[in-house]
Amino acid sequence: MNNGKRSSFLHEAKVTHPSRELSVAAVLAVLLLALAILAPAFYQPQPLLSLLTREAPALVVTCGMALVIIARQIDISVGSQFAVCGVCAGWLAVEGWPLTFVLAASVVTGAALGAINGVLVAGLRLPSIVVTLATMVTLREGLRLKQQGVFINLPDGVQWFGLPTMTAGQWTVCGVALGLLVSLALAMKHLAAGRFIHAIGSDAEAARLAGLRPGWVTFWVFVLMGAFAGLAAMMNLVQSPQVDPKSGTGLELKAIAAAVVGGVAISGGRGNLWGVLAGLLLLGCIGPALTYSGVKPYWEKAIQGAIILLAVVSDGLRGRRLRAGKTA
Questions:
Q1: How far from 101 is each of 92, 96, 109, 112, 235, CA to CA, in Å?
Q2: DSSP readout, 1-19?
Q3: How far apart are CA 269 and CA 57, in angstroms?
Q4: 3-class secondary structure, 233
């Protein structure tokens, strides 16, 4: 395929329609407005900052999950990767390693775990759902056998990156997550690598004919996913004086749900990173909103499930309209 056709294909592959993102942002705005009227205590600075800090590691993981889904793959092992990276970081912190090296080790460990998934999916062409299910169970059970549920007590100076106040640490955690989100969103829009990910998710065979290497792109997407899981594990570790070996349970479902609700097409090839933040905040604010409104908390999962179902149905209907438009 000549350069003109390749450029045209990549341009078409990166085109996204922000209707879902705008809809989610509008629903989030309505929810926040309702909370401002019905539960103004929700906006007290410290509880609100604590909520954002708690969701920051999930935002980092969701950013990686968005890339994986756009590439028409899935990774349900991220919760186990998150736990393994957190425990490894905890061990190193106990041994007295400097925090910068602990952080680097956590990210490298996650990238290595992601590379295993990438080799199996891209190299051996195995279904990503099967591969990541196997690695999820293997990592989780291996960690359970190693730790036996025992928490790791962290030394002084690890919590909140050793900063003088908890508030400073919280702002640092939130800043890292938002900085990563902005950087990735801009990279996906303006860099060739972002267009490559959209291209293989839209049509891997057409991308190959355009001169791309779908296998390599897929491999590096899984590596990035693992690295983000390692970074998120470190961001979670500094928020507590102990490391829970069972941390990250259910994180994969939360990340997938937030990405899909935020506008990433579960069928791949479409989506951007801006909607991911709105999707995560929407799902994350439901629980506190119910608490402040005096509604029983067991409604949280039901409401989240309904929102996810609506997003998936909307995505399916939109996909049918796009296919009908192309064949018309």
A1: 9, 10, 12, 16, 14
A2: --HHHHHHHHHHHH---TH
A3: 25
A4: helix
User: What predicted TM-score, i.e. pTM, was given to this entire model?
Assistant: 0.90
Which three-class secondary structure state does DSSP give residue 152? strand
CA distance 197 to 267: 13
Amino acid identity for residue 292 in this structure = Y
What is the pLDDT, as a whole number, of residue 207? 87
Do the bridges between strand 242-243 and strand 152-153 make them parallel or antiparallel, or are there none, so unpaired? antiparallel
- The structure tokens 């190193």 sit at 92
- Listed in sequence order, the residues at least 6 apart from 256 whose beta carbon sits closer than 8 Å to its beta carbon are 65, 69, 74, 76
* CA–CA separation, 13 and 268 (whole Å): 11
pLDDT in tens, 150-200: 999 999 889 999 899 999 999 999 999 999 999 999 999 899 999 999 999
The token pair that represents 130 in the structure block: 């099967």
E-assigned strands of 79-228?
152-153
Task: Give me the residue label for tokens 């949280």.
Answer: 300
Which residue, chain included where needed, has tokens 């900052």? 49
3-state helix, strand, coil in the chain (%, to 5): 75, 0, 20
Q: How far apart are CA 12 and CA 137, in angstroms?
A: 38
* Cα distance between residue 177 and residue 232, in whole Å: 9
**Ranges assigned E (strand) in 10-118:** none
The string of pLDDT tens digits covering residues 212-237 is 899 999 999 999 999 999 999 999 99
Q: Which residue has the tokens 């039901």?
A: 302
